[in-house]
Design brief:
Helix content: over 70%
CATH class of the largest domain: Mainly Alpha
Number of helices: 19
CATH superfamily of the largest domain: Amino acid/polyamine transporter I
Oligomer: single chain
Number of strands: 2
Strand order of the largest sheet: 1-2
CATH architecture of the largest domain: Up-down Bundle
Strand content: under 5%
């Protein structure tokens, strides 16, 4: 009955629309497959290459203790990220739903781990990630105008908020526009990396380098090493975002694995060369004193183009921010579709076909954390929960492969890669509780707050009768608010199954 009413409402809207030649069947509300191979590769590279390569080198060097070990960390982080991306390529072709981590945990380990992943994504992981990317954007936009003095923190945060607002507006307006913006920004940020790499290689060929005696064993501290990996993995973070939009990828069984492999090999190669360029031109002490490593590099090696680098880096951060806002709302969209989140977030705009409510929910959370957060604390704070659930997802992949060996898997990762990646992730996550107990402890505690929320909302039928009566009234109020928001935002549930 509800389905019939919704179809009637959709047709009634179409009959009063501007284009009278469009039939009801052609304008069925659903997510369209609009992401081909090039946009998919651009989506991954554009999301991975953001602020990380311009911020994380300092964090990697501080926590690794030496130049040589920091370069090794960058290589290992690239290999580890490639292993994880290959595991997610198998998961993405085995389970053809959008939603990424949430979907894979739901299909392999059950609803509670999936709900907790959904909970932490929108309580603090996505706001924290978007906050430190937007802060990097604001810093690179503002600081050149105040050099050599420090830029006002308030102005940096204001510009960061403007950047977030711009990205949210694009993702609310059009999927095609967001995809084209991502392709354009990916080419710009690749040019920015090459602009750093080429002078570095030229200087290296001339014999300039600052990594003699790179492996100084006395400076290595094992308790800080996980934090070095967290900073490196943060810079590689984003290889899993294509899995958030599986239902919008053209020919996902071919394009998802191919896009993942091409993009991650390219990013690893570029990242290692960028860090070699940094250490060729700057000393480790200069790098540690710099809050904007790329700008310091440009002042030393690209004096004629030093004013261009901050602009390119800011656009790079904007591309990463756009990729995050394009992918993460799809997780919330799928979670609401599965009944783990209010139904309003499973709806899409009836004309623009964007998950409008899910995108808009993120906006105030990001702005709030952006105002109160600091970049390096945000990295450690968000990384624990992110990598813990990634490890759980790949563990679920191994369990599912054992339990259902005959299930079709268009792409199958070697078992050694899956086991190695899962073990390393759990090791890094466990050791980080010792390295940074305050931030990782807070992250773990906030993750556990999702357990009572799960049983009070999704499994409320297990509550005492008095409690169920109370939450029933709350549900009626929520349904009323959801209906009013649906009318205001012009959104509806999709009418075609896209998986």
């Amino acid at each position: 009955k509800l389905k019939k009413q919704k179809n009637q409402a959709t047709c009634a809207w179409l009959e009063t629309g501007q284009d009278e030649n469009i039939s009801c069947e052609e304008e069925v509300v659903h997510l369209h497959r609009e992401i081909g191979l090039l946009p998919a590769v651009s989506f991954i590279i554009g999301t991975v290459v953001g602020s990380g390569i311009f911020i994380a080198p300092k964090g990697v060097l501080i926590n690794s203790g030496s130049v040589g070990l920091s370069l090794l960390v960058w290589v290992l982080c690239g290999v580890l990220s490639l292993f994880g991306a290959l595991c997610y390529a198998e998961l993405g072709t085995t389970f053809t739903k959008s939603g990424g981590h949430y979907t894979y945990l739901l299909e392999t380990l059950g609803p509670l781990p999936a709900f907790l992943r959904l909970w932490v994504e929108f309580i603090f992981i996505r706001p924290a990630v978007a906050s430190y990317v937007s802060l990097a954007f604001g810093r690179y936009v503002v600081e050149p105008f105040f050099a050599p003095c420090a830029a006002p923190v308030v102005l940096i945060k204001l510009v960061s908020i403007l950047g977030v607002t711009f990205v949210v507006a694009i993702n609310c307006w059009s999927v095609t526009l967001a995809s084209r913006a991502q392709v354009t920004l990916t080419f710009i940020k690749t040019f920015a990396l090459l602009l750093i790499i080429i002078p570095g290689i030229i200087a290296l060929a001339k014999g300039e380098k600052n990594f003699q005696n790179g492996f100084e064993v006395d400076l290595i501290t094992l308790d800080k090493l996980p934090l070095a990996f967290y900073n490196g993995l943060y810079a590689y973070g984003g290889w899993f975002y294509l899995n958030f939009v599986t239902e919008e990828v053209i020919n996902p069984n071919r394009n998802i694995p191919l896009a993942i492999i091409c993009s991650m090999v390219t990013v690893t190669f570029l990242y290692v060369l960028v860090n070699v360029a940094y250490y060729t031109v700057m000393t480790p002490a200069e790098l540690l004193l710099s809050d904007a490593v790329a700008v310091t590099f440009a002042n030393r090696a690209l004096q004629g183009l030093s004013s261009v680098i901050p602009i390119l880096v800011a656009l790079s951060c904007l591309g990463a921010l756009n990729g995050g806002f394009f992918g993460s709302p799809r997780m919330l969209f799928v979670g609401a579709r599965e009944g783990h989140w209010p139904a309003i977030f499973s709806m899409i705009h009836i004309r623009r076909h964007t998950p409008l409510p899910a995108v808009l929910l993120l906006y105030p959370l990001v702005v709030l954390m952006l105002i109160t957060g600091e970049i390096y604390q945000l990295i450690n704070f968000a990384s624990f929960a992110r990598w813990f659930f990634i490890a759980l997802a790949t563990l679920g992949m191994l369990i599912h492969r054992y339990r259902f060996p005959l299930q079709p898997r268009p792409f199958k990762v070697p078992l050694l890669i899956g086991v190695s990646f899962t073990a390393v992730c759990f090791f890094i996550v466990g050791l980080s509780l010792y390295s940074d107990p305050w931030n990782t402890g807070r992250s773990f505690a906030l993750t556990l707050t999702g357990v009572p929320v799960y049983y009070l909302t999704v499994h409320r039928y297990r509550l005492p009768r008095r409690w169920r009566r109370f939450f029933g009234k709350e549900q009626d109020l929520l349904n009323y608010c959801s209906k009013q928001l649906q009318i205001l935002l012009e959104v509806a549930r999709q009418e075609v199954q896209t998986y």
